[in-house]
Write a structure and sequence with these properties.
Distance between the termini of chain B: 53 Å
CATH superfamily of the largest domain in chain A: GHMP Kinase, N-terminal domain
CATH class of the largest domain in chain A: Alpha Beta
Largest sheet of chain B: 5 strands, mixed, barrel
Number of helices of chain A: 5
Strand order of the largest sheet of chain B: 7-8-9-11-10
Organism (chain B): Ambispora gerdemannii
CATH architecture of the largest domain in chain B: Beta Barrel
Oligomer: heterodimer
Order of helices and strands of chain A: EEEEHEHEEHEEHEEH
Number of domains of chain B: 3
Strand order of the largest sheet of chain A: 1-2-3-5-4
CATH class of the largest domain in chain B: Mainly Beta
Largest interface: A-B, 56 and 43 residues
Order of helices and strands of chain B: EEEEEEEEEEEEEHHEEHH
Strand content of chain B: 25-35%
Radius of gyration of chain B: 20 Å
Low-confidence stretches of chain A: 1-5, 232-265
CATH superfamily of the largest domain in chain B: Nucleic acid-binding proteins
Shape of chain A: globular
Subcellular location (chain B): Cytoplasm; Nucleus, Nucleolus
Structural class of chain A: alpha+beta
GO molecular function, one term (chain B): RNA binding
CATH topology of the largest domain in chain A: Ribosomal Protein S5, domain 2
Distance between the termini of chain A: 43 Å
Protein name (chain B): Ribosomal RNA-processing protein 40
Mean pLDDT of chain B: 91
Family (chain B): Belongs to the RRP40 family.
């Protein structure tokens, strides 16, 4: 590897750059909530079923049971998928308010659509979006990013499968949206403390970017949905007159984005 | 960004703390109190009603969670010694006492078979208990429209659409009624029951109502005429 290209990767990203993020919500008709999240060509569709009836065997008297299935692109789930299921479950058990729906089941099915690295992080982000779509009560939003340490000792954020194959160590971190604390840390391989901390910092800023992106797109979605239902709304001009008295229509369009920003502070 | 904020359209996502500092307020769906903060636990649009100082998150979902006072459409799945068991589309089935009907006494019991459609009100909902239903207004002893739904057809829809259909300003039911006479019952559990003079008309009405969710209310007349012209 020439040192000249040290800051540019094969797909022309720099070391700390995520692949383009793509978000779709509510794409499946027959489940209670669904979402698709992609990092470039890595993509996971997640569906949520619940709070629904639970088998007596799995019933918990004081909280909801969370069941997670990860389905690979081809074939039946293997060891890696089982590990991802475990990580997804522990991550979201900490954030879903299971106490609000005791003796019920919340089923999460993450179907990998295309595997090009960072699948655990993609699945966590997809699951979070699907849970919001399903209206499952959560204490915070969770976003996740994977990074690798290369043989040269560089830290690359959001690796493709090709990059991940040559990695010395792989780290996945998930952060909550309240204090940006790590709620999941999954590391594989041999690494130094310095490399680990560097990975942590880079993943954290990546997770923050994803959070902003989710805020932006969901905020837009909720507003459009809400405005078009309650006001005489013409999507082409984005203006309208209110039919209900407690809404001031001008401010809806103008102040929406500002308020989202304020929320972040 | 204090109180005036609440009157505008504000989008909240799970984990957001609300900029609300009053002492007396009522929290509705999607909001909880965490120590001295009000936290949103669902994504949606924050709404405020000055009367009673009520706050809630307006969102749309498909899975019903029982709440006291909601009118719902259920299907009888089991007959017990004292009550019917009714599927209401929530995580748990609800119970409907034999005495929660108009004119019911110990001697005169309502006779409904398994599979009967019931329009009822949730009289009690608690996360730790099975929801309880009633088909009678306990204050007057009258049915007030609740009870068995005979004939017609049931369709599923999102909870948001069901909620809007129950609001008087929503034009789609009225616009359909101008062309086709029909009876309707709307359950907040995302089930709508329609009974028109012919099967064909029932289907047209159901399709138009379901379709109306995709369009703004101002286009409801257009939705109706589209569906009428298809037949």
């Amino acid at each position: 590897m020439a040192t000249l290209n040290a800051t540019v990767r094969e797909d022309k990203r720099n070391f700390a750059q995520l692949r383009p993020i793509h978000i779709t919500q509510d794409l499946l008709q027959r489940v209670d909530g669904s979402a698709e999240f992609s990092f470039g060509s890595s993509s996971v569709i997640c569906s949520i079923y619940g709070p629904a009836e639970v088998k007596i065997r799995d019933e918990k008297l004081d909280k909801a049971t969370i069941e997670v299935f990860v389905r690979p692109v081809i074939g039946t789930p293997g060891t890696k998928d089982k590990t991802d299921e475990f990580n997804l479950r522990t991550t979201f058990e900490s954030v879903i308010m299971t106490g609000l729906h005791p003796r019920t089941l919340i089923q999460i099915v993450a179907q990998v659509k295309h595997d090009d690295g960072s699948i655990l992080a993609t699945a966590i982000n997809a699951t979070c979006l699907a849970l919001i779509d399903a209206g499952v009560p959560m204490k915070a939003i969770i976003t996740a990013v994977t990074c690798i340490v290369t043989q040269q000792g560089d830290v690359l954020v959001d690796p493709t499968s090709k990059e991940a194959e040559e990695a010395v160590s792989t780290h996945t971190f998930a952060f909550d949206s309240l204090f940006f604390n790590a709620v999941l840390c999954e590391s594989n391989g041999i690494f130094t403390e310095k490399q680990f901390l560097e990975s942590y910092v880079l993943c954290k800023s990546g997770a923050n970017q994803i959070y902003e992106k989710i805020r932006e797109s969901l905020g837009h979605k909720f507003q459009i949905q809400y405005i078009s239902k309650t006001l005489h709304f013409d999507p082409s001009t984005m203006t309208g007159t209110a039919t209900t008295t407690d809404i001031e229509p001008r401010q809806i369009v103008d102040d929406g984005d500002q308020e989202e920003d304020m929320e972040l502070e | 960004m204090q109180q005036s904020n609440a009157h505008r359209l504000q989008v909240v996502l799970p984990g957001d703390a609300l900029p609300v500092y009053e002492h007396k307020l009522k929290l509705g769906p999607g909001l909880i109190q965490d120590e001295d903060q009000i936290i949103a636990v669902k994504g949606g649009v924050l709404k405020h009603q000055p009367a009673g100082n009520k706050y809630w998150v307006e969102s749309n979902q498909r899975r019903y969670v029982a709440a006291t006072g909601d009118p719902i459409i259920g299907v009888i799945t089991q007959k017990g010694g004292e009550f019917f068991r009714v599927d209401i589309g929530a995580a748990h089935s609800a119970v409907l006492s034999y005495y929660a009907f108009e004119n019911a006494t110990k001697r005169y019991r309502p006779n409904h078979d398994v599979g009967t459609l019931i329009y009822a009100r949730i009289s009690q909902a608690n996360k730790d208990m099975e929801p309880e239903l009633e088909c009678v207004n306990p204050a007057t002893g009258r049915a007030d429209g609740y009870g068995e739904l005979k004939g017609g057809q049931v369709a599923k829809c999102s909870l948001g659409l069901a909620r809007r259909l129950l609001e008087t300003e929503t034009p789609i039911l009225k616009d359909l009624g101008d062309h086709i006479p029909f009876e309707t019952a709307i359950g907040l559990n995302g089930r709508i029951w329609i009974n028109a003079d012919t099967t064909k008309n029932t289907i047209v009405v159901i399709n138009a109502i379901k379709d109306s969710e995709k369009y703004p209310e101002s286009q409801s007349r257009q939705v109706v005429s589209n569906h009428l012209s298809k037949w």
